[in-house]
Amino acid sequence: MLFWTQFAQDTLNILWLGIGLFIAGVLEAFLWKTKPFKLLNTPIQTQWFGENKRWRGLISLPLTCVLSTFLLQLIESQLFSNSGPLIQFSNFNYLEYGLLVGFVFNLSELPNSFVKRRLQIPPGDENSKIFYVIDHMDSTYGVLILWFFYFHFPLHLILTGALVTPLLFMGATWVRRQLGLKA
Asked: Which of 24, 41, 170, 174 has CB 3.0 to 4.6 Å from 64, enough for a Cys bridge?
C-alpha cells in the first residue's frame, strides 16, 4: 500500500509542476504572435533538426516558464502553507527555475529531431505511434533529468514522472490543439 500512496503523491506533484509548463506553453503560443517573436521564427538548423525547430521556441518557453513560475508562486502564497506534500514553486527562485526548465524542455527535443531527420521522418509526422510517444518523452525526460541532478528531486518522483509525464504532455498537446494554439 505504501507504494501506491507514494505513487499517488508523486503523481500529484508531477501534475502541479506540470501546470507550470502547461501555462508557459499556452502563453508561449500568444507570444509567438508578437513582432519580436515573428522575427525569431526561423529554423535553428534545417539540415540537422528540420523546419519546425525554431529559435523562437528556445527563447520564448524559458521566458514564459519564468512568468508561469512567478504566477504560481503568487497563487501558492495565497492558497497553501509552506509545509505539506506538494513540491511548491515557492521553493525555487522563479527566474532560475523558469529559465532552466523552459530551456531544457525545448533543448531536449533536438536530439530526437536530429535522429528523425536522419531517418527521413518528416517533421510533425504523427503516423508512427512509436515516434509520437518518443516525441512526448524527449522534452519531459530532459526536465526529469534536470529535476534530479540540478534540483535534487527524489528518485521515486523521477521514476513516477518517467511514466506519468509523457501522458500529461500528450494531453496538453491535445488541449493546445483544441484551443487552436498548436497546428
From this structure: 24
